[in-house]
Each structure stands twice: as structure tokens, then as C-alpha cells.
């Protein structure tokens, strides 16, 4: 018995090493992971990275271009743009990850139930998701934001409630296919509970679309937060986010004469979103049992 347990541990260790090696050999995924970690750590450690506060106004340094003192320049109120991007990354990344996580959990749970049991329950859930998806996502988000009000947590709740349908449909379709596999019938014949079959035996074989959906949603929600904040409907303007920085730089005068005010946050958003997508593609290839 001890030998069997030891062999299982060795097998799991070797599989982990193989997956890490495969991920490391995927250059875009490795680059994406590095960029995500670096940008996240810089945002978390913002007080150690910069001595400037994102809300501190220095009227002697208004609209200064990038320099040794302010590497990303200053805005029209004399605030350091680099510190705004670092502190703003905290909120934007936080909103993207938590919103995607909440939407993924709801989508996975409902997708597992619908795909495994089928029948009227599946029809009811799929019809409900279709009704929600008939509304344009942006319109639905705007309506819910107007009801709940502006705020970081309110925005996360809105994204979670409107962002689970894609994951739900992906997981449901995977379960409709996987439940016909032989090992599922064997599990049933041995009297294994439905809960164990759904979450211990079937779920690991559907992780690839879940991971891809999670990473895509992180990128989507970061862009959605930036878009809503740019329109003045997302996070309150008193809180630094990448979208609010872009919102402050939307005038024609800024676009033509103060390029650093929109270029720096635009590059930050683009880099993080691309990095997340590269990482998601790499994890899909590594964790897909069919590969």
C-alpha cells in the first residue's frame, strides 16, 4: 500500500514537471506570465516603487512631459502619471480577476449541472442564459450600474452577474460530450455519487475551456472597466484606475499636445490584456488532457 502511494506521488510529481517544462517551452505563454507577474507586483508594491502619491497635486509641475523626475510625465493637475498607473493597476487588475473568478464559478456550477443531468433542468438553464444574452452586454451593464450605483464592488457584482453565460455554455457542451465516455458509466456502475462524478472525475477533463474562458474574461473585464470609466460610468473618478486615467485624457487638446497622458495608460492596458491572452493559450495547451 505504501509503495502504491509512493508511486502515485512520483507520477504526479513527474506530470507536474512535464507540464512546467511544456509551459516554459511556450515562449508567448512564458512572456505573458512574466508580464502579468511583473505588472501585478509593481502595482501591489507601488508605495515601494514610487515616492509620489497618485492624488498629490503639484501645481509647479503641471503637464510636464516624461523626465528623470517624472518618468511618465504629469497631468494637468501636476499628478505623477507613473504613480497613477501603478495604483490604478491595483483596482483594474482586482476588478478583472475577481469579476472573472465570480463569473467562472457561477458558469462552471450551472454548466456542470445542466450538462450532466440534461432534461428539463438543462432546457431551463439554457433558455435563461439565452434570454440574458439577447440583451447587448454593454446595455445590460449600463442598466445594472445605474441601478446599483458606481463603486468598485458594485462594478464587480455587475460583471459577475453579466459574465457567466459564455463559461456556462462552454462547460455544458463539454459535459454533454464527456458524460458519454466509458469511465463515467463505470463510475455509475460502482455506485459513485453524482457529486463525485461531476466534480472529481469529469471536471478535470473540462479544465481547458474553463481556463481559456477565465483568462479571456479577465482581459475582457479589464477592458470593460476601462471603457465604463472612460465614459464616466465605472469606478468613481476619485479612485485611480487605468480607465479613469484615460478618461482624464480624452479631450482633443490632450490627445494632440499631451501624448503621454493617454499613451502610458493605453500601453499598460494593452500589455496586460495581451499577456493574459498569451498565458491563457499556453495553459490551455498544457492542461488539455487530449494534447
From TrEMBL:
Cellular component annotations (GO), alphabetically ordered: plasma membrane
Give the principal location in a single coarse category.
membrane
Keyword annotations from UniProtKB, A to Z: Cell membrane, Membrane, Transmembrane, Transmembrane helix, Transport
SUPFAM superfamilies assigned to the protein according to its UniProt record, in alphabetical order: MetI-like
Transmembrane parts of this sequence: 91-117, 138-162, 211-239, 259-280
Q: Where in the cell is it found?
A: Cell membrane
Similarity comment? Belongs to the binding-protein-dependent transport system permease family.
| Protein name (Swiss-Prot/TrEMBL) | ABC transporter permease
Provenance organism: Peribacillus simplex
